[in-house]
Here is the input.
Amino acid sequence: MPPPSQPPRRTTRGLTSITDVTSIASLARKAHDIAALDRQLRAAFPASMREQIRFADLRDGRLVFLAPSSAWAARVRLYQAQILEAARALGAQAHTVAVKVAPLPIEEPVPDLRKPLSPDAARHLRTVAATLADPALRGLFLELASKAEKP
Here is the structure.
């Protein structure tokens, strides 16, 4: 029976920052650049289209947009000349526009996870505020106590 193989020894010490990992850093940089270009290019659209259309990529001179339906994709194609003009004004080397139909992700509302301040907690805050000599700190405690739910 051959001896069990040993895993290779790690040559680094400790954790590596995610920003130091080249592939992740370049991916994050590209995502940031695409988001910035998305905001700038969508400004070329009428206000009604800005919320429906998303810029996806710039590759080999081709601007790729995402539209939620074929009707919205057709509207993007109508603005192709203005989009290319805006892209060139931003310094992007683009000569064609492509539109892919893909439903936009549904943005779920973020639930409010804050807990209300109870009347008892407010009473305790007022009691502590009465003992404080610093008027600024006392004011902050009283302001916080005023946020309590009324019984």
The two ends are 76 Å apart (CA to CA). The helical segments are 22-42, 47-50, 70-78, 80-89, 119-131, 135-145. Strands lie at 54-59, 62-67, 96-101. The chain has a mean pLDDT of 83.
